[in-house]
Amino acid sequence: MKPDRKNTKTILIDLSYKGSSNEFEEFYGYTVTYQELEQQSYIEFKSIMFENINKKIKFRKYGRLGPVLTIKANMYESEIENFENLINNNKIETIYGWIVKDVTLITDEDKDLEKTDLEKTDLEESNYQNEYSIEENIDNIDIEEDLN
After folding, report:
1. Could you say which of 58, 75, 104, 122 is the most buried, measured as most Cβ atoms within 10 Å of its Cβ?
2. DSSP letters of 23-71?
3. What integer pLDDT is reported at residue 33 of this predicted model?
4. Structure pTM?
């Protein structure tokens, strides 16, 4: 993994096929899967970014919502500006027709909110484990033995 780059901003980039699922099936048929071409387009997208902006940008697949692949990237302000120029000039479209559908800048406030949610989830899991062990201890009590 590439080393961390200091003072970068985090952005989420949504990639998806330029048309609908029906258009994809009409054009490509059933000979190739959506996931195969999506992976190829992800690789091609990274190549475009490395060639036109900077080879040191860190990209990670962040998640998927339906047919949209979200990529998390850490970029400097100047890199984000160059990225915006590429989008505005329609310079980011892969051979297979994947395009950038949406870009979201993650602010420090969003990061704090995400951290709080993770801590809350950890606390809830911890409480569940404590409840489970208490119930387990209760189940192991032999009432008749304790009464004698």
Report:
1. 75
2. HHHHHHTTSS-HHHHHHHHHHHHHHHHHHHT-TT-EEEEEEEETTEEEE
3. 92
4. 0.69
